[in-house]
Amino acid sequence: MGVRMDTAGVLGKIVFWFLFLVFLVPATDALGIPTVSAVLSGLVAYIPNVFVAILVLFLGTLAATFVADIVRGVTASTNIGNPSIFAGIARWAIIGFAALVALEQLQIAPALINELFGAIVAAAAIAFGLAFGLGGQDAARRWLARGEDTLSTAANQIDPQQVREQARSSDGPMQANQMPTRRQVR
Predict the structure, then answer these.
(1) Low-confidence ranges of the chain (pLDDT < 50)
(2) What is the reported pTM?
(3) Among residues 93, 84, 83, which one has the least CA distance to residue 124?
């Protein structure tokens, strides 16, 4: 299309229009147009939210790229799954959360965004619970079987003679720290 944009030119235009709007508010007040003045005041008050939302998206994208590269490197070095898939999941999850924060900053349906964020966290918790529960069934079954085997082995190793001797020693003479039973008192 032949359009050339330089960063300084775009930034200059943004500053120009911001200052123009700032000085337009008192001008409309002086002319006695309170409705236009109120609309322009609301617009001027909303502009910082737009800048913060753009900054959040920019920093979120940078963080997403950085984390995706780290995830790709770690998964490639440990040979766990497909590194590109894990890196893509990490990148898009971070970008998604940055987009939610930016929409919150722009005050676009904040109640809906809070519900959406809660639903995402709940879905992740349910997915983790199901994956752990269904994927860990065999491991849990092995651990329980190993515990039962250990208990049954320990129970079988107790000598019946030891049990009888312990029963006799409890019926024997009273120790200093024992209370007398009814049979011993009679």
Answers:
(1) 186
(2) 0.57
(3) 93
Tokens of 57: 């998206």
Q: How far is it, in rounded angstroms, from Cα 101 to Cα 93? A: 12
Among 92, 95, 71, 91, residue whose Cα is nearest residue 83:
71
What per-residue confidence (pLDDT) applies to 172? Answer: 56
109 contact partners, CB below 8 Å, separation of at least 6: 103
Contact 105, 52 (CB under 8 A): yes
* Calpha distance 145→152 (Å, rounded): 10
Cα 157 to Cα 151: distance, rounded to the nearest angstrom: 10
Task: List the one residue out of 52, 127, 121, 56 whose CA is nearest residue 95.
Answer: 56
| Residue 172 backbone phi and psi in degrees, to 5 | -70, -160
